[in-house]
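Module 6 notes. Inverse folding takes a fixed backbone as the condition and produces residue identities as the prediction. Think of it as a translation problem where the source language is geometry and the target language is the twenty amino acids. Below is one complete input and output pair. Work through it position by position during the lab.
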């Protein structure tokens, strides 16, 4: 994460697919944890868990630049800014819910503690947490469902972080059987593979092998999780990712993602193909 509030675990590559092989890649298997594995919060003496009503429509907001959380994914975060430490502790003492929202790019230059955010985000549950000796925290956020901000409550001296009244958003389910989705998924996978080959032409064999292994792992995800993991993992602009999270469901996201990746592949071909100015 590249804000003053938290940092996303860094990945090893800076290409389109850099996040797929990075430690922040979400996974359906319990053993796939971020580096420096986080201790479950309920096993830590620092935290107290108290369940509250699950139908609550008041949610703490965690605004971050260039980050959009998708359903069926996980996101490891390092929390260091005091107000978001307070938010995290409050969530852990309550229902563990926080609302991940992206900051509008045009608001990043504003000298404001509450920059404008997109109205639609994704609710997450803090599934694991660890407090470090210096008071900073490592947390793992498990994405739940989408929400829309209805109204924000003003920040106060006793609550330095943002809170909003929200409305949960329904998701359209994938068709059963998902015949059309199977073809789109195969096309997305093939496009990703070509992007890896073209963007990694100058890499060491070991690095390329790591990329291809990460791609191979994507095949293990069920259809609904696959589109969300890819959408969160790959390097897209915040407007593209926001369009994906605002789509009505995974079927619509499949079609959008297919379009976005085809465009990025065309850009890459233009840069690396014969006659381009790219230096190899």
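Target side of the pair, the amino acids:
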């Amino acid at each position: 994460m590249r804000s003053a509030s938290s940092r996303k675990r860094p990945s090893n590559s800076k290409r389109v697919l850099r996040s797929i092989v990075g430690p922040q890649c979400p996974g359906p298997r319990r053993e796939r944890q971020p580096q420096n594995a986080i201790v479950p919060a309920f096993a830590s003496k620092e935290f107290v868990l108290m369940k509250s009503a699950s139908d609550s429509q008041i949610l703490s907001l965690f605004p971050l630049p260039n980050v959009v959380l998708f359903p069926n994914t996980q996101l490891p975060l390092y929390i260091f800014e005091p107000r978001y430490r307070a938010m995290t502790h409050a969530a852990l003492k309550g229902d563990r819910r926080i609302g991940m929202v992206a900051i509008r790019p045009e608001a990043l230059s504003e000298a404001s503690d509450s920059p404008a955010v997109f109205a639609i985000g994704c609710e997450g549950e803090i599934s694991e947490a660890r407090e470090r000796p210096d008071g900073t925290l490592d947390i793992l956020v498990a994405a739940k469902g989408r929400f829309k901000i209805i109204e924000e409550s003003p920040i106060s001296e006793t609550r330095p972080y943002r809170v909003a009244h929200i409305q949960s958003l329904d998701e359209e389910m994938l068709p059963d059987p998902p015949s059309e989705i199977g073809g789109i998924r195969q096309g997305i996978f093939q496009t990703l593979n070509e992007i890896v080959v073209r963007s990694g032409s100058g890499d060491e064999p070991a690095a390329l092998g790591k990329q291809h292994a990460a791609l191979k792992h994507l095949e293990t995800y069920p259809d609904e999780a696959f589109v969300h993991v890819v959408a969160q993992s790959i390097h897209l602009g915040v407007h593209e990712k926001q369009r994906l999270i605002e789509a009505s469901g995974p079927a619509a996201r499949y079609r959008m993602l297919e379009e976005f990746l085809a465009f990025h592949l065309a850009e890459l071909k233009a840069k690396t193909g014969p006659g381009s100015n790219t230096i190899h």
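Reference fact for the lab report: The first helix runs from residue 82 to 93.
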